[in-house]
Design brief:
Blueprint lengths: L1 H30 L2 E5 L19 E9 L5 E8 L7 E3 L16 H4 E8 L1 H4 L6 E2 L1 H11 L7 E5 L9 H5 L16 E2 L1 H9 L4 E4 L13 H8 L4 E3 L10 E9 L7 E11 L2
Parallel strand pairs: 5-7, 6-8, 7-9, 9-10
Antiparallel strand pairs: 1-12, 2-3, 4-10, 4-12, 5-11, 11-12
Helix pairs in contact: 6-7
């Protein structure tokens, strides 16, 4: 009787799990038909942070080498500000009571992306503000941006990272460097447009979704108040198509954090 029960249990489990196994195999097969693109910069002493930030990325060696037991072992301790390098801006960063980094739903951090290339304009104007017209021009050529899309803006400034002089507009450090920041960002009216069209998240290949000369960070206020997270200092955006990339943007899960280092990747279907 025990043997019969075991056989029945195995048969039932096989029947119940078969659809799940098939789906998992289907997913694995589908993913094998594409490739992954890394959209994150390394975190190192060269990582760029806001010029007035008193600290930067630091990696300390706790142990490294051959142990008394004859095997190799290494372990390190790192410290870093939340906002620098490829990172997340959580809603609470500019919205009192907004979602913290650990509370953002995974659905907000994953999804299909469109890439709006404004580099022809921004590379000739360091203070360029990405406009609603830039977005609607893109739509006129590529179709309407659907709800719950991740919208990336490619300025071309990723080619300058980590050269602070070319990327920020100044290599100076400290509070005195802030007025000298010159890089493009998203106009606040365009930010309102993005909110109205219910996008999921926004990303850019510059230090900030606001342009360097911003005094009130209005674009941050608008987007983050609408619970639209921002991804800043995105790498390799030039490798993405204008449509069709699937994004996975997973930050360090800092409890009550206003942001954090971000490992962001894109999946592209083979052409």
């Amino acid at each position: 009787m025990k043997l019969n029960r075991a056989i029945i249990i195995v048969c039932v489990m096989s029947l119940c799990c078969a659809p799940l196994i098939t789906k998992a195999q289907d997913l694995s097969h589908a993913l094998s038909k594409g490739k992954w693109i890394d959209l994150s910069y390394d975190f190192s002493p060269q990582t760029l942070y806001w010029p007035n930030n008193p600290t930067a990325f630091k990696l300390d060696t706790i142990a490294e080498g051959i142990t008394a037991g004859g095997f190799y072992y290494s372990t390190y301790a790192f410290s870093a500000p939340e906002h620098g390098g490829t990172h997340l801006d959580a809603p609470i960063h500019f919205s009192q009571g907004g979602l913290t980094a650990d509370k953002i739903p995974l659905e907000k951090l994953t999804g299909e992306a469109v890439v709006i290339d404004v580099s022809a304009k921004t590379l000739n104007n360091r203070d360029y503000l990405i406009s609603v017209n830039d977005i609607t021009e893109w739509e006129g050529k590529n179709g309407k941006i659907k709800e719950n899309m991740i919208v990336f803006f490619r300025t071309g400034y990723g080619q300058f990272y980590p050269d602070a002089e070319k990327y920020f507009g100044t290599a100076e450090r400290g509070a005195g460097a802030i007025p000298k920041l010159h890089f493009p960002g998203i106009d606040s009216i365009a930010a309102e447009w993005l909110v109205q069209h219910k996008i999921k998240a926004v990303g850019i290949d510059t230090p900030s979704i606001d342009f360097g000369q911003s005094k009130n960070f209005k674009t941050h206020q608008i987007l983050l108040s609408a619970s639209i997270p921002g991804f800043e200092n995105i790498a390799n955006m030039n490798l993405l198509p204008i449509k069709g990339a699937y994004i996975i943007a997973l930050p360090v899960k800092i409890k009550n954090g206003s942001g954090g280092p971000l490992r962001i990747i894109a999946w592209l279907k083979n052409s």
